[in-house]
Amino acid sequence: MGELIQIVDSLENKISKLLHRLEVLDRANKTLENELKNVRSNQENARKTVSEWEEKYNSLKLANSMLGSNTNKTEAKLKINTLIRELDYCIAQLSE
């Protein structure tokens, strides 16, 4: 009978340790999930910032080429042609 009590006490002790370890791991998991959310948010903000700077850079390149810079004249002409085609398409859609 004493041996059975020792086995039960041993099992209770192991279960208690496992439950404690589970709580610790749950807390660590929640912390890591919060960190992951923060990192993803920061990454998305960085992507948006990069995208905004790329748009500004392209606008500046276009403005420079329109001001007489020879380096991007072909690109500017292509952009203007694209804009004209888009306008023509919109006008055609409106006239229908």
UniProtKB/TrEMBL annotation:
It comes from the Bacteria. Residues 8-63 form a coiled coil. Keywords: Coiled coil. This is Cell division protein ZapB. The lineage of its organism: Bacteria, Pseudomonadati, Bacteroidota, Flavobacteriia, Flavobacteriales.
